[in-house]
Specification:
Belongs to the DedA family. The protein is mainly α. Helix content is about 85%, strand content about 0%.
Length: about 220
């Protein structure tokens, strides 16, 4: 009877995790692709949360490897799709809504910096831009304005997607390893990704405000 009870418990637990994986991995892929096309989804937090769930499964190394592969492929696919849509906008007479969307998410001063760095460092800038919060879109727009072919952009987007997926997966592993319950690890990972993504913007805002105050005092 004891063996039968163990088999029943095993039968109950396997479908639960299998169903979670069957739903979770496609959802992860779609969310990251969508977040790459429309920068409103916090894709970094999505990957970190998936990593937290993965380390609490029965085979964490395999689950983490799958999360890494799915996230990397999704980020690369989303970047290439957005760049292809942007190139259509650059080539067309009236542009496109995708090119306008890219323009709307790239501040003029950040675009100027991205263009200067792109001219100096080339493809390597793409890798760094994926790791800097809000750095991806200005560099992508700089590539579009420089008329980079899709193949050249893809050569830089591939290692950028790998580095990005690894970074946010490590954040998830850190958050998940600190807490026994998956939901606690997910909450910690989300907080970490939000802090990482918002700190540079807050720092730039404070610097601009300080510079504005200094100019006002000098003029007064």
């Amino acid at each position: 009877m004891g063996d039968l009870a163990e088999l029943v418990d095993l039968a109950r637990s396997v479908p639960s995790e299998s169903t979670q994986q069957a739903v979770g991995y496609p959802s992860l892929f779609l969310l990251v692709v969508f977040g790459s096309l429309v920068p409103v989804v916090p894709t970094g937090a999505v990957v970190s949360s998936a990593a937290v769930v993965a380390i609490h499964q029965t085979a964490p190394p395999l689950s983490l490897l799958v999360v890494f592969g799915v996230a990397s492929l999704a980020a690369f696919s989303g970047d290439v799709m957005l760049y292809w849509l942007g190139r259509r906008g650059v080539a067309s007479k009236n542009g496109s809504r995708w090119l306008e969307r890219i323009h709307d998410h790239a501040a003029p001063e950040r675009l100027d910096q991205a263009q200067a760095r792109l001219e100096e460092h080339g493809v390597a800038v793409l890798v760094l831009s994926r790791l800097i919060p809000a750095g991806r879109i200005p560099v992508m727009l700089a590539c579009l304005l420089a008329r980079w072919p899709l193949r050249r952009f893809a050569h830089g987007a591939a290692p950028a997607a790998l580095a990005w997926a690894l970074t946010y997966q490590l954040i998830g592993i850190l958050g998940g390893s600190l807490f026994p319950e998956p939901w606690e690890g997910v909450a910690a990972a989300v907080v970490l990704t939000v802090v990482i993504s918002t700190t540079p913007a807050l720092w730039r805002r404070l610097r601009r405000r300080s510079a504005g105050d200094a100019r006002s005092e000098a003029a007064g």
